[in-house]
Write a structure and sequence with these properties.
There is one protein chain. The protein is mainly beta and 310 residues long. 27% of the residues are buried. Helices cover 5% and strands 47% of the residues. It has 1 helix and 26 strands. The chain is elongated and about 100 Å long.
Length: 310
Amino acid sequence: MTRSTFLTPVVASLCLVLVSCDDNVPPSPTPSAPFVSQISATAPPTMAAVGDTVKLSLTAFYTDGTSKDVAALAAWTVDMPSVVRVTNGEATALSLGATFVYAKFASLNASIKVQVTPPGTFAILGGTREPGMSSLPGVAVTHPSSGFTTVTNAGGAFTLGGLVDRTLQLQKAGYEDATYSVAPEEFPWLGMQRLIRMQPGDTTAVRIAPHDMEYEPLHATVPGERCSPCKLIRVLNAPGNRLRVTLKWTPVNIGLKLWNDDGTFAGTSPGLLERDIENDATDLWLYVGQSAATAAREYVNVQVTVTKLN
């Protein structure tokens, strides 16, 4: 005998309702995996000697509030590879100096300054450039008291470590020598002016830019007066010569001055300055520019003429 199975109307209706409800309920969303929202790099203040190693720390902060050190997983690069080498988050000192080290993890970037210098000394990291121009490679940078020296790289950057005072001297063929006192906690950009040489009978066009060099002429009429922005012009001379230096410039409303061994001299009329010089020096230094205290920071085009009067 065959047994028939059937549902009562109530049960059938309930099943239909349940099926209908199940079809309309959206699936529960899958929780998103936490991702890195920020990274932060830290390092010990200094390494004391070549050959020292330190662990760099790179902390990744995740969106779920957790964090972990990922120094061994990051990609590391070094600005001054002669100073340190970084492998799997460990820095090895290669020479005295300072450098910025960069870490990249999860498409985020962080940087840290690393220094190699003995206790009681400091390191300087800086750069050189021609004012208004790009960086200046191939500059010899010397620390006179220690005798330490280096040469700026292709990007104009340099570093020296093991220093006890802040004086640096710069030299490069075709440029005026320069001396600076620098702060180790900064990244100083140190300017160097291209040589301007003249002799009697020459006329030279000079452009003074707002970002040009600043000089303190030794024989300024006002002690401590500074020429800025300024150009240094050297005139090759013979003993017994009487010379006339003539400056003509535009815009004529700019108050240019001339500094030399006799003092400070202003324009004789708008856009014109003439000064007679009688000096037995074979290398006359002329500073042409504005007084730093009242300078109008704009471009000035100057025609410089040196004439022999005897």
